[in-house]
Amino acid sequence: TPRVFSGIQPSGNLHLGNYLGALKRFVDMQEAGGYETVYCMVDLHAITVWQDPADLRRSTRELCAGFIASGIDPEKSILINQSQVPEHAQLAWVFNCVARMGWMGRMTQWKDKTAGKNAEAASLGLFAYPSLMAADILIYHATHVPVGEDQKQHLELTRDIATKFNHDYGVDFFPITEPVIEGAATRVMSLRDGSKKMSKSDPSDASRINMTDDADAIAKKIRKAKTDPEPLPSEAAGLAERPEARNLVNIFAALNGQTVDQVLGDFGGRAFSEFKPALAELAVAHLAPISSEMSRLMDNQDEIDRILTRGAERAREITAPILKKTYEIVGMVGPV
Ligand code: AQP
User: Residues that bind ATP, according to the entry (predicted)?
Assistant: First the structure.
């Protein structure tokens, strides 16, 4: 059975972009059958930038609640917190020795996150982030990785690392992973600026819809979302030069399981004053049950911690043998 792996950072403010670009699609792949699905809270990635320890603990549990509330079933999928499965970090070290500095330096996320700042002061972990991500995927020999558009380059690097490892050691051990970037909302944009992606770390809360926002907050943010004065076009081509309008239509389509053309078939020629309330209603209908289930789970932290402990046990049945074999290939004296 092909194995699916993906992760989300517990760095606070889980948002609609994470939901449509990642979580909702994780659930689709879990339900599709024919895959073994492994989903992860990547806390080791989160600490590549400063995290207050108490906030990190809370965000990790909140993210776990978000996974479950969105429909990840810890019986059907393996649901884990990265640091509880030590083979991720162990394989990442091997990959740090396979990957080249130049490859890391070319990553746009590294460039974006250090733009205008002193890159010398960034953590070494932030630079090596894609190497740990490659390890997250390949420690499961996962072949399918559902992600948003922003992660495409990191997945190409994962393929480069697997290829170089296999070549250097003369083995056919790590698979060449396929990114799965599908759907109408692989790149949800900020509600305040159609040229920036919706992001956990945007200082403006109005730029994103948080998974924990209540109905009023969601409706207000959509009402205030930046748009242009034109009515909606009747075909997708008419959105080409209208990033804010395109973003709202994409969100509608993704939430409603429609294509952009279907949405425009219904709303073409109509003003945002009509479209926005319909979008708000749709977003609330989707997100309100998730947010109330999240808060129920957050009141039951023992349940969350038990799920993660069990997930880690199941994960290690896969990861321990793959690490052992990797060490053998590399020439470590065992047993490990
Ligand atoms: N705006 C987005 N649209 C579609 N997908 C998105 N993802 C993130 N933002 C969008 C997808 O969510 C998954 C988890 O992402 P992550 O936890 O690695 O965080 P990130 O990509 O760093 O998300 P943020 O919100 O942008 O965090 P900051 O602000 O810290 O950089 C991935 O599959 C990602 O593609």
Answer: 9-11, 17-18, 148-150, 188, 197-201
Instruction: Say if 3-180+301-330 and 205-296 have the same CATH topology.
Output: no
The catalytic residue positions are 113, 197, 200
Q: Tell me the backbone φ, ψ of residue 79, rounded to 5 degrees.
A: -115, 120
- Within 10 angstroms of residue 191's Cβ, the number of other Cβ atoms is 24
Is ligand 1 within 6 A of the CB of residue 22?
Answer: yes
CA dist., res. 10 & res. 132, Å (int): 16
Q: Closest Cα to atom 2, ligand 1: which residue?
A: 17
Q: Annotated binding residue at 175?
A: no
Q: For 183-226, how does the pLDDT look when each residue is reduced to its tens digit (9 = 90+)?
A: 777 899 999 999 999 999 899 999 999 999 999 999 999 999 99
**Cβ distance 6 to 39 under 8 Å?**
yes
Question: HSE on the CB side for 320, CA within 13 Å?
Answer: 10
Spatial distance between the Cα atoms of 208 and 192, rounded to a whole number of angstroms: 8
Which ligand 1 atom is nearest residue 18's CA? 12
- CATH topology for the 3-180+301-330 domain: Rossmann fold (3.40.50)
Closest CA to 58 of 107, 6, 11, 117: 11
Fold of 205-296: Tyrosyl-Transfer RNA Synthetase (1.10.240)
What is the pTM assigned to this prediction?
A: 0.93
What ipTM is given for this predicted complex?
Answer: 0.94
CB 275 within 8 A of CB 269: no
Query: What contacts 212, CB < 8 A, 6 or more positions away?
Result: 14, 62, 291, 294, 295
